[in-house]
């Protein structure tokens, strides 16, 4: 009998990056791990070069820590690689810390980190709590809501917008641009490109406004920040602002929406959490491990020939680290496909690892803590309002969230 498409590496690229599997993503990754820690991808993702997916924790950490041999910037070594085309400086993140390695990355992240401190994040907690309560105040009398539309999306977008100084009246447009950007990453599409250009032009106008009228927001701080005579250039600043607006709400929104569904899928664990809201911080870590919002990292590119887990990766080959798969690695986690909100976790890769670990991880954790604590405290009878099979996924190149999540209470 011939193999079914889902059991072959031949369609792995399609399976991973088109959302073809939805709820079946975890069995797919389990099959990939059974094939090896580093599995070849086909389907043209790497152009005329090789492409690989890293499925297990040890090898994932190895790649993410080794930015010298696995660069995020295809321009210097990838030439005609499809991910390298058009990367000459006109993309939304091409001059941000997301797409450069050392020493440029250290300089950019160091400048931004001066304004993005853990203390500043924790000082936001009272305001995050106010926003969460305001959102639930609006729906509490209805007896139901769409978790994505009414809570998971507006909570982080309002937080990051207030942090950055994005006017409230502009946030609907930001959502359209962010959705286009998420769906279009790595995929040439002129309609998406128009939205991305509009997003970057908007960021440029915001920067210009903050130069004229500085305030106490993060953009004003980034405009003014200076360290040993170094500062963000105009292009770097615009790229950074676009990244912060986008990344500051996209993944956290997916964490809250997907995490709520995961809890509803596991009623015993949900009851345990409702009985002891002090477990929420640990529960957030387990939800990040179990079904984190980032399915994979952005692509890395081998700067030289290298061997990992017995596979020879050629210079210029594309390497993708499957974060969700590494977080279900059977060699590290007991019963990895079981949700255990009291699980003692020494590591999970939900926010990446190495120099490109997510700068906003402390904020996302804070928002997750507040969001789930408030949701379960105020709406203790939360339940799905549609059949489970009617819940639909919204999957982009490397993220996974819900289109909607109707609930009753």
Give a short summary of the structure.
Helices cover 47% and strands 9% of the residues. With 409 residues, the protein is of the alpha+beta class.
What would you say this structure looks like, in words?
The chain is globular. Strands 1-2-8-5-3 form a five-stranded mixed β-sheet, with helices on both faces. Strands 4-12-9 form a three-stranded antiparallel β-sheet. The protein has a single domain, classed as Cytochrome p450 (Orthogonal Bundle). The chain is α+β, with helices and mostly antiparallel strands. A hairpin with a 2-residue loop joins β6 and β7. α6 packs across α8, α6 packs parallel to α16 and α8 runs antiparallel to α12.
**Largest sheet entry:** 5 strands, mixed
Bin the strand percentage: 5-15%
**Spatial separation of the terminal alpha carbons:** 49 Å
Shape: globular
Mean pLDDT: 85
List the secondary-structure elements in sequence, H or E: HHEEHEHHHEHHHHHHHHEEEEHHEEEE
User: What is the alpha-carbon Rg in Å?
Assistant: 21 Å
CATH superfamily: Cytochrome P450
What is the domain tally?
1
Can you list the strand order of the major beta sheet?
1-2-8-5-3
Number of helices: 16
Low-confidence stretches: 1-11, 85-89
Q: Architecture, according to CATH?
A: Orthogonal Bundle
Instruction: Just give the CATH class.
Output: Mainly Alpha
Enter the CATH topology name: Cytochrome p450
Counted beta strands: 12
Alpha-beta content class? alpha+beta
Helix content, binned percent: 40-55%
Write down the oligomeric state: single chain
């Amino acid at each position: 009998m011939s193999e079914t498409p889902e059991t072959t590496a031949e369609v792995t690229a399609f399976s991973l990056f088109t959302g073809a599997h939805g709820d079946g993503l975890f069995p797919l990754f389990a099959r990939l791990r059974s094939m090896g820690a580093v599995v070849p991808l086909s389907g043209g993702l790497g152009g005329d070069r090789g492409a690989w997916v890293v499925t297990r924790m040890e090898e994932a950490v190895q790649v993410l820590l080794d930015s010298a041999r696995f660069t995020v910037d295809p321009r210097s070594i990838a030439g005609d690689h499809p991910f390298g085309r058009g990367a000459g400086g006109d993309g939304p993140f091409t001059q941000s810390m997301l797409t450069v390695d050392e020493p440029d990355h250290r300089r950019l992240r160091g400048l931004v980190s001066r304004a993005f401190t853990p203390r500043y994040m924790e000082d936001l907690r009272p305001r995050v709590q106010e926003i969460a309560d305001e959102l639930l105040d609006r729906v509490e009398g209805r007896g139901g809501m769409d978790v994505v539309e009414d809570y998971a999306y507006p909570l982080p977008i309002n937080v990051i917008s207030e942090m950055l100084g994005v006017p409230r009246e502009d946030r609907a447009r930001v959502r359209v641009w962010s959705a286009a950007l998420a769906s279009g990453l790595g995929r040439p599409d002129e309609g998406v490109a128009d939205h991305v250009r509009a997003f970057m032009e908007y960021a440029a106008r915001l920067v210009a406004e903050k130069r004229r009228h500085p305030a106490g927001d993060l953009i004003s701080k980034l405009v003014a920040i200076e360290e040993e005579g170094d500062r963000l250039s105009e292009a770097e600043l615009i790229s950074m602002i676009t990244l912060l607006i986008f990344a500051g709400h996209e993944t956290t929104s997916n964490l809250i929406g997907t995490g709520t569904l995961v809890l509803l899928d596991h009623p015993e664990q949900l009851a345990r959490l409702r009985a002891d809201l002090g477990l929420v911080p640990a529960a957030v870590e387990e939800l990040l491990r179990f079904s984190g919002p980032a399915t994979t990292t952005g692509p890395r590119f081998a700067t030289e020939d290298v061997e990992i887990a017995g596979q020879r990766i050629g210079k210029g080959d594309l390497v993708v680290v499957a974060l969700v798969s590494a977080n279900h690695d059977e060699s590290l986690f007991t019963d990895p496909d079981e949700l255990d909100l009291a699980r003692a976790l020494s590591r999970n890769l939900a926010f990446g690892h190495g120099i490109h670990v997510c700068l906003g991880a402390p904020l996302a954790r804070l928002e997750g803590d507040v969001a789930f604590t408030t949701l379960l405290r105020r709406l203790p009878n939360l339940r799905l309002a549609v059949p489970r099979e009617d819940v639909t996924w919204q999957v982009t190149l490397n993220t996974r969230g819900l289109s909607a999540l109707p609930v009753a209470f």
